[in-house]
TrEMBL record, chain A:
InterPro entries: DsrEFH-like, Sulphur_relay_DsrE/F-like, Sulphur_relay_TusD/DsrE. It holds the Pfam family DsrE. Transmembrane segments: none annotated. GO terms for biological process: tRNA wobble position uridine thiolation. Its main location: cytoplasm. Belongs to the DsrE/TusD family. It comes from the Bacteria. GO terms for cellular component: sulfurtransferase complex. This is tRNA 5-methylaminomethyl-2-thiouridine synthase TusD. It is found in: Cytoplasm. GO terms for molecular function: sulfur carrier activity; sulfurtransferase activity.
From TrEMBL, chain B:
NCBIfam families: PRK00211.1, sulf_tusC_dsrF. Signal peptide: none annotated. InterPro entries: DsrEFH-like, Sulphur_relay_DsrE/F-like, Sulphur_relay_TusC/DsrF. The gene is dsrF [H]. This is tRNA 5-methylaminomethyl-2-thiouridine synthase TusC. Belongs to the DsrF/TusC family. Coiled coil: none annotated. It comes from Thioalkalivibrio nitratireducens (strain DSM 14787 / UNIQEM 213 / ALEN2).
Length: 130, 130
C-alpha cells in the first residue's frame, strides 16, 4: 500500500504528530510505502530544527529527520502555514530578509499542491489532527 | 517549468471531500482549510465540501469580525463557484442543533441528513478533515 500522511498538529502539545509518526513507522516496518508526509496548520512546527526538548524526552523533529533519511520519505512543510508561523528555509529567509533559517534536515518547504498530489497518487491519505 | 503534478499527465480524477468541522474564528482550521480547497481547485478533481459540527458556522450570513480584529474571510465561500467548487453539503443535524436553518447560510448548499452524508463519504477516494 502506498500511503500519504497529513499532520495537522504541532509537536509536544498534541498526540497527533506522535501518532502520525508511529503510524508511518509501522507502515514502513510492514513493507508499505510512505510516499509523503505533509505538515499543515501547526503541524509545520514538527520541522523546526531549533526545538530542544528535555534530554529524557523524545525528539520529535529528529525522529522525522531519521525517517526521511532512512526510508527516503518526502517530508513537506506547507509554505503558507510555515510563513505565518516563522518557519523558513534558507532561500525563503533570504527572500524575506530574515537573518536565519530553521528547517530541520530531511524536511522541505513547498506548496499545498504537494498535499493534493499525495491524495491523487496514494492508495490512502491518512489525516492526523483534531 | 512544469509543476510536479503535471508530469502525471491527465487521467486520474479522484473524489476529494473536504470536511469542515470547526467554527470560522477562534482557531485557524477553517481559514487554512479554505486555502487548501482554493489550491486544490487547480487540480481538476471531483471536489465536494461538507460542513458539520461547528463547521456550519463558517457559512453563517452576516459575519462581523471587526470586534475581534480578524479578517472576515466568509465572502470567499461565495467565490467558490468561480473555482468550480459547487458541491457544498451541510449536515442537517448540525444546523438544527445550533438553531440554524438553510436561510441563515450565505451560499446555496444541499442540506443532508447524517445518514445520507455517511453514504456520500463512503463514495469518496480522499477525505480531508479540518
Amino acid at each position: 500500500m502506498k500511503y500519504g500522511i497529513l499532520v495537522n498538529e504541532g509537536p509536544y502539545q498534541h498526540q497527533a504528530s506522535d501518532t502520525a509518526y508511529q503510524f508511518a513507522k509501522a507502515a514502513l516496518d510492514k513493507g508499505h510505502e510512505v510516499f509523503r508526509v505533509f505538515f499543515y496548520h501547526d503541524g509545520v512546527n514538527n520541522g523546526t530544527r531549533f526545538g530542544v526538548p528535555p534530554q529524557d524526552d523524545r525528539n520529535i523533529t529528529t525522529r522525522w529527520t531519521e525517517m526521511a533519511e532512512q526510508h527516503g520519505v518526502d517530508m513537506v512543510i506547507c509554505i503558507a502555514a510555515a510563513q505565518r508561523r516563522g518557519l523558513l528555509d534558507e532561500g525563503e529567509a533570504k527572500r524575506q530578509g530574515k537573518d536565519g533559517d530553521n528547517i530541520a534536515p530531511g524536511f522541505r518547504i513547498s506548496g499545498l499542491g504537494q498535499l493534493i498530489e499525495a491524495g491523487i497518487q496514494c492508495d490512502r491519505l491518512v489525516v492526523f489532527g483534531d | 517549468m512544469s509543476e510536479p503534478w503535471e508530469e502525471e499527465g491527465p487521467g486520474t480524477i479522484k473524489k476529494f471531500m473536504y470536511v469542515n468541522r470547526k467554527a470560522p474564528y477562534g482557531t485557524i482550521y477553517a481559514l487554512e482549510s479554505l486555502e487548501v480547497v482554493l489550491i486544490a481547485a487547480a487540480f481538476e478533481q471531483d471536489v465536494s465540501m461538507v460542513f458539520l459540527d461547528d463547521g456550519v458556522y463558517q457559512l453563517k450570513k452576516g459575519q462581523e469580525t471587526q470586534g475581534i480584529g480578524m479578517k472576515n474571510f466568509s465572502p470567499t465561500y461565495r467565490a467558490l463557484e468561480g473555482y468550480d467548487v459547487e458541491k457544498l453539503y451541510v449536515e442537517a443535524e448540525s444546523l438544527a442543533e445550533r438553531g440554524l436553518s438553510e436561510d441563515d447560510l450565505l451560499v446555496p448548499v444541499e442540506v443532508m441528513g447524517r445518514e445520507a452524508l455517511t453514504e456520500l463519504m463512503e463514495e469518496q477516494d480522499v477525505i480531508l478533515s479540518f
